[in-house]
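Intended use. Records like the one below are meant for learning the mapping from a protein sequence to its folded structure. Do not use them to infer anything beyond what is encoded.
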Amino acid sequence: MPFTNQFTIAVNPTMECNVEKNFHVEATGSHGLLDLRIKRPFFGIIHLPSYTIASLYSCMSTDYTCSAHGAPTINYTLSGTVIVPQKCIINAGDIVRLDFGTMLSGHFIAKGQKPDSVNPVTKEIKVICNGGVESMANLTIRFQCTPDAHYPDAIASDNADVGVVVTDTSHQVIKPNTGLLPFTLNNSQATVTFIAYPVSTTGHIPSEGSLLH
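Structure written out for the chain above:
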């Protein structure tokens, strides 16, 4: 519990005014115990900024009373990092494969645009979490990949003129590496839906062949 004006008394009969003596205040502020309470489950990493948790004051008194006033002799501060291990498995570790079918190179015309002949692919992935993740937690998925050099909103492919755009179900673009796809766990699991489609990244007709892997 928080406390104020708690003190101990140390008596040194050899203490003289204006004379420097070796004066030891035994026990006062020499040790302590701090309990850190986590009120709500969380996952990941939380950084605790430095803040003062206690202050120690000293004073001289002939009647064995003392109160905190003036500048503290010692300030005790707390800072640190709390790390909670967590584990979420997407599609039980399987590869998420997107098949756009046959695409004609001549239909890739405008930069950032999907060919009219290609339909977007809607994909559902299963997410199961454990290891400290709250069963009803709000989480996000981030697509860690290489952005296209000419059109950063798209994921780069092995064809310099073609990339893949990922969106949520509201057709908001999820940018590679920085965009987040939010979802909420239900009893530690969720089904997350996203949409993907190929786009021209340069406005040039792409070379023919196997475009995406």
